[in-house]
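Posting for a labmate who doesn't have an account.
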Amino acid sequence: MSRDSLYQVQADALISQLKKDQEAAIRKLDHQAGDWNRQRLRDARHQALQHFRKAAAMERERFTREISAAEAAIAAEARSRHQQHLSAMVQAVIDRLPGALEQRWQSPLHRSEWILSALQNAARRLGEGEWQIRIAPGPGQEERPEGFEGARLDWQEDPSIRAGLVIEKGGARLDASIRGLMADTPRVQSHVLTLLGEVRGGGRIHV
């Protein structure tokens, strides 16, 4: 074999080896690129999943806040409507009380109870002595005692009083007429609320 032929063989072998090395390097790079791409894809998917979970959590939190706010608003509106309805009921009862008390005064039994209760309260508050009593028309003489627990009673019928009586001693005064009974508005409202609570199944109702 001539020297030129030997060089050609060596050159071909070297070229062949270089091609093999190049192909191996390319395959390695392709493999590394594939691994890198797959890793980047996994990272991107993981990051996207994290973003989704975070966004979903924020959305759930926002939705929960909106539901809580809506529920609170509904509850407040319900309480307000209940209070308005109950207040209207109380006022309706109070508006009818004067007429109901006047009718009660026309009943001899209820009128006697009314007078006795007023005299008992006066005995506690005014004590003994002389009482001047102005009373609504209706009671007969038998319903007007001359004395009560050490006090002397001076009765005077007063047509301006629709029902009940007013007891005075000196500067002290006990008003058991309709006007006097209705004057303590908070107490009347509380009493009406108690009655409404009993009518509606027991328990105190508040406004």
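Reply:
Got it, the structure tokens are right above this. The CA atoms of residues 14 and 33 lie 28 Å apart.
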